[in-house]
Write a structure and sequence with these properties.
alpha/beta, Rossmann fold, UDP-N-acetylmuramoyl-L-alanine:D-glutamate ligase, Protein-Tyrosine Phosphatase, Chain A, 3 domains, six-stranded parallel β-sheet, 20 strands
Amino acid sequence: MTDDRGFSVRGKRVTVAGAARSGIAAAELLVRRGADVTLSEARDRIDEEARLRTAGVTLELGGHQTETFVNADLVVLSPGVPAGQPAIEAARRAGVPVMGELELASRWLRGRIVAITGTKGKSTTTTLTGRILEAGGHRVLVGGNIGHALSAQVEQSTDDTIHVVETSSFQLESIETFHPWVAVLLNFSPDHLDRHATVAEYAGAKARIFANQTSGDWAVLNADDPATLELATAARSRRVLFSMRGDLREGLVIDGGAIVRRTPEGDEPIVQLTAIRLIGRHLVADVLAACAVAGIAGVDRAAMARAIEGFTGLEHALEPIGEIGGVRFVNDSKATNIEAARRAIEAFDRGLVVILGGRFKGGDFRDLASPLAARGATVVAIGEARPLVHEALADRVTVLDADDMRGAVRKAFAAAPPGGAVVLAPACASFDMFRDYADRGRIFKQEMARLESEWNGTPEQ
């Protein structure tokens, strides 16, 4: 089976590297498209083993064997697999084409693509954009780096589908023909320096979202973030800007207590800020970006307002989870970098306790010192990054240590005054202690629930 560009894998030997969500979806898609597929995974076992073997996928567990890669006709990378691994480099030297799962899936999509990237806010913006487009009457599939892998949505793709795709730097670094109709760059700050060698390399991966756009496409850009505008300098697409301030001559702005679409013909109010049910001023920027995409797609104001008013945010993204003794608990486990944690901190007033730490990804914890000190905050440090947290922050704020999430929740609650807030905003990856950020967030919520039961005098069994 081919698409309009003649791309086919029928009868070809394809090696997929990485048996996470995207790799599994790619392997199953490739089998359906007639390929002879081997899925290579570093782990010794995976939960989906029986399902994949039944589907016709050959499994190579316990490490990537060079022969499996150099003897393939095509290698497909799951986003979590670094492209510089020896077996993958050997395949390239042997002349074997190597592409990412996002690139693979996009070659078979039939509808238009809205691609959303940025250091912070991708998931919120992607989800809300999908809901606004659906409210406007469009057929929408939301996926990519959130929810379903793009490969899992190919069979549902139709000519009238709008694919709203969250795209990470890991996915974008390996694209070749991936072509968004609308490319959204929300913001940019250093991140993933455990994977990318330099900030410039990370920036270059993000900028690739515009690489295949033409003058008939659109770029939605954050006018408040100079780095974002710089990364889009070479984009050939038309631009729609958004700003939290009201000083744009044209674009999406905040003015008079409302989100406004500003045009040469005048201002068009979309929704009052009081209707936005999200914690944190920075999340309003995500709403602006979603409105910009919706405007390009022709969604009317009433549909935009309806979707925004019904949106209460995402799990693990500044998610209110309860209150104990007058202390609020908020789960922002998706704050996996310094900039995201800073924005979470700035969403709260005094009486704040922040749980920080995990596997360090780069950046500088000292960037958090001023916003923490301004709120008289206390920090509870967890995970591998504890020494870095102490070194960067202990001269400005109180830093406590906890060995696990149970201890962190209890120490944070003990340090928080009535009327205060305990916020999980780790600024780090989760893999030193948890399966992923979602697992970390769930365990935070479980420990808060246990503490609440004890506080109410009904300990959990």
